[in-house]
Amino acid sequence: MKKYDLIVIGMGPAGMVAVGMGTKLGLNVLGIEMKSIGGECLNVGCIPSKAMLKIAQMKYNTDILSDFGLKLNGNVEVVNPLETVRKHVSSQTGESLNKKFSKADLLLEKGSATFVDEHTVEVDGIKYHGDLIFIATGTHPMIPPIEGLSDVPYLTNVNVFSLKEIPNRLTIIGGGAIGVEMAQAFSRLGSKVTIVHMGKHLVPSEDSEAAAVLEESFSKEGIVFYNDESVESVSKESNEFFIKTTKGTFVSDQLLVATGRKPYLDSLNLDAAGVRYDKEHINVDEFNRTNVSHIYAVGDINGKWLLTHAAMHQAMLSLMQAMSQKESKMLNRSNYVVPRAIFTNPEIAQVGLSENEAKKEGLEFFVVKVKYETYARAATTGSLVGFVKVITDDEGTVHGATIVGEQASEMISEWTLAMQHNLKMMDILMTQHAFPSLSLLNRNVAEKWMMTQVTKGNLASLLG
Ligand SMILES: Cc1cc2nc3c(=O)[nH]c(=O)nc-3n(C[C@H](O)[C@H](O)[C@H](O)COP(=O)(O)OP(=O)(O)OC[C@H]3O[C@@H](n4cnc5c(N)ncnc54)[C@H](O)[C@@H]3O)c2cc1C
Questions:
Q1: What is the mean pLDDT of the chain?
Q2: Average pLDDT over residues 268-278
Q3: H helical segments located in 233-294
Q4: 215-268, pLDDT tens digit by residue?
Q5: Structural Rg of the chain based on CA atoms
Q6: Which pLDDT score is estimated for 156?
Q7: Helix axis angle, 440-455 relative to 408-420, nearest 10°?
Q8: Ligand 1 center to residue 8 CA distance, Å?
Q9: Which amino acid residue places its CA nearest to atom 47 of ligand 1?
Q10: Residue 334 — very low, low, confident or very high, per pLDDT cuts 50/70/90?
Q11: Pocket of ligand 1 (CB under 6 A)
Q12: By CB count within 10 A, which of 6, 69, 316, 376 is most buried?
């Protein structure tokens, strides 16, 4: 049996980091991927969705030219945006990506890996020994038990980017991050989009005020959404889907299901290795270590975050921990903050506590909020929509930040840095921001906080 220092099962963002870093550390590494290197993110997730949103944004910009004193002579025709997306994605995946891992042994598209015992993994009838094993198998789309759904050719993120053309009418079940990104991309490229969503508002994990800003933008753009609504049944006749809800039956040319994620657990045979898991994820400790000390579970499969950057971070730290056997505080998962973003226009980004979460936790806090429209750069470049909102206190501690608006996904990094390193509002204020960058809005929040402290008579304590 061939023996390895490290076996990595699944080569999405988490697995790629583990394989790449493992070989740099001089380990003898086997990487196993049953589909394509890059995982959901590169092949059918983050990257194609953002490529499509970019094209959709370009098309939308031509629709609003008159707001900027410009006029197009002739039409902008939507020709083959999805083919362009596929071309861009394939330039980053496939052979070119495989080559980056030339120092490792790779088993690609040979089938799924299955545990035989706690040190042995089998692929395609052949057994491999691993001293250390990283499980990074991620998730796949969760399909809800809706009557008739399994009988119709619905889309998920796995096949939506393979469409040959933009459908005239698209119904999306689910208004979470994936649902809203796809809704705006397809709508701006010409689809009449309807979202049927069970939550009280779109993007239910996000701050409700930020979600309201997104909903207003969607309404203006003609994206129809039904919150608090579930689909009763689905059927297909000729080329049309019929989606039955209490609000009536929607007729559509394509149906996209974006109702959540399910872990890739079944084929792993974790019982053979004695690894504990439940229906949602593999159980891990704060170092992403399973109950079997040489087996780690990193990325989406441990159910903590379902975000690419978190998956990569976990893989890096867990490998450092596994190699050093040093349980450093820095490596402990509860000691790092995780930002997230939804890449619609306006974008929504969050780190730490939202206002609703801070209330639920009974935290003593107040909110400092600055609207984009108060800043000349934003107002004069058509980025009027949105706000930066920070959950803070008289000490200037940053408990959380919500940004909705242009470049929110970039601007959230500053608050992430602040939270990670215990920087306070005065630290943000004392950091100069290039004028007129949008990130100056972050500094304006800190200035507003400082003014509240001055009003409260705390000037002397601010000067340190
Ligand atoms: C449409 C969409 C958009 C997204 N956008 C963003 C975004 O903008 N930002 C963000 O941070 N996140 C985004 N995500 C989430 C992101 O894709 C995931 O968090 C990320 O891919 C998780 O990485 P991972 O390595 O844990 O798992 P995955 O990327 O899921 O990779 C796991 C790999 O393991 C393989 N595998 C599974 N079981 C086995 C087995 N038994 N044997 C061998 N191989 C196996 C799978 O084939 C897969 O390639 C998006 C997801 C989707 C679907």
A1: 96
A2: 97
A3: 270-273
A4: 999 999 999 999 999 999 999 999 999 999 998 999 999 999 999 999 999 899
A5: 24
A6: 98
A7: 50
A8: 14
A9: 35
A10: confident
A11: 9-10, 12-15, 32-35, 39-41, 45-46, 49, 112-113, 136-139, 157, 178, 264, 267-268, 299-301, 306-309, 311, 343
A12: 6
pLDDT of 332 reads 84
Instruction: Give 2's contacts (C-beta < 8 A, 6+ positions apart).
Output: 30, 105, 128, 129
Q: How many angstroms is it from 300 CA to the middle of ligand 1?
A: 7
Q: Which pLDDT does position 356 carry in this prediction?
A: 95
2-38+93-141+262-335 and 149-260 share one fold? yes
Q: Whose CA is nearest to atom 49 of ligand 1?
A: 39
Of 193, 248, 264, 381, whose CA–CA distance to 15 is shortest? 264
The residues spanned by each domain of the chain are 2-38+93-141+262-335, 149-260, 346-462
Percent of the chain predicted with pLDDT > 90: 93
Q: Which residue's C-alpha comes closest to atom 2 of ligand 1?
A: 45
Percent of the chain past pLDDT 70, that is, above it, reads 100
- Nearest ligand 1 atom, CA 340: 11
pTM above 0.85, yes or no: yes
CA of residue 40 to ligand 1 center, whole Å:
4
Domain 2-38+93-141+262-335 has CATH 3.50.50.60: yes
- Omega cis (within 30) before 141: no
Structure tokens belonging to residue 21: 């870093």
- Ligand 1 centroid to 396 CA: how many Å? 37
Q: What is the pLDDT of residues 63-100, one digit of tens each?
A: 999 999 999 999 999 999 999 999 999 999 988 899 99
CA–centroid distance, 12 to ligand 1, in Å, is 5
**Beta strands, E only, 294-379:** 295-297, 340-342, 347-352, 366-371
In sign, the C-alpha dihedral spanning 301, 279, 203, 162 is positive
Is 149-260 CATH 3.50.50.60? yes
Element of type H or E holding 140: strand 139-141
Angle between helices 46-63 and 81-92 (to 10 degrees): 140
- 205 pLDDT band, cuts 50/70/90, is very high
Q: Does domain 346-462 have CATH number 3.30.390.30?
A: yes
